Amino acid sequence: MPDTGIEVRDLHKEFPVRDRGLFGPRTTKTAVNGLDLDIPAGRITGLLGLNGAGKTTTIKILATLLRPTSGTVRVDDLDSVADARAVRRRINLIAGGERMVYTRMTGRENLWYFGQLYDVPKRELRARIDELLSLVGLTQAADTMVERYSRGMTQRLAIARGLINDPAYLLLDEPTLGLDAPIARDLRRVVARLAAEGTGVLLTSHYLAEVEELCAHVYVIADGRHLAAGSPAELKTATGSLGTVRVTVPQVPPAVAEVATRFGATRTPADGGGEILTLRSPDHMAGPLAAAIVGAGGAITALEIKEASLEDAILALTDGTVPGPVVLA
Amino acid sequence: MIDATRSAARVFAAESLKQHRRLFGQPLVVFSMLVWPILQLATTYYTLRPVATASDAAAHWPLAADPHRLLAFLATGTLAYAFFFSLVQSAWHFSFERTTGTLELLFLSPAGRLTLMIANGAGALLQNAWLLTCFTTAALLGFGTLSVASWWMYGVVVLALLIPAVAWGAFLNSLLVFSRDSAFLYTVLDEPLWFVSGVRLPHFALPAVVQVVGAVFPLTGSLIAVRGALLEGDTLGALAPTLGWLTLLSALLLAAAAVILRVGEAHAQRTGRLRLA
Question: Which segments cross the bilayer (chain B) (predicted)?
Answer without folding.
Answer: 28-48, 68-88, 125-144, 151-171, 208-230, 242-263
